[in-house]
């Protein structure tokens, strides 16, 4: 690949970095707000901030690489993209909660919270990804 093509691709990516950042931060704040409201209501704003720092790690490891891939063929509010975010959210939440709880048993898969958190994480990331990064509408 020629140097000018590499430079052009890096330039295109650097233009998108703020949008990836806004999508990531919005997703983290949305998910942690829901977690605080439904589980840890007494923590308030401090809980939202603290949980956001925990939530950013699985989003960075699992969702952002998928988001970069999806951004090659942008579609706003694509149901297929949403289903794929759910697909990647399930192992991400499983691994992350197993690591945090030091419990690698499959018992977590029987809890409603596991599925609720996985679905919420995927929903928020898909929504904010569609708002900030997926520029074309699915109709076009």
How many runs of DSSP E, i.e. beta strands?
0
Radius of gyration from CA coordinates: 17 Å
Structural class: mainly alpha
Q: Helicity level, as a percent range?
A: over 70%
Straight-line N-to-C gap:
31 Å
**Global mean pLDDT:** 82
Global morphology? globular
Work out the helix count: 4
> What percentage of amino acids are in beta strands?
under 5%
Uncertain runs:
136-140
Largest sheet: none
Compressed to H and E, one letter per element, the order equals HHHH
Helices and strands in order, then pairings?
Blueprint: H1 3-38, H2 44-70, H3 79-101, H4 112-132
Helix pairs in contact: 1-2, 1-4, 2-3, 3-4
Question: Explain this structure to me?
Answer:
The protein is mainly α and 140 residues long. It has 4 helices and no strands. It has helices at residues 3-38, 44-70, 79-101, 112-132. Helix 1 packs across helix 4 (112-132). The radius of gyration is 17 Å and the shape is globular. The two termini are 31 Å apart. The model is unreliable at 136-140 (pLDDT under 50).
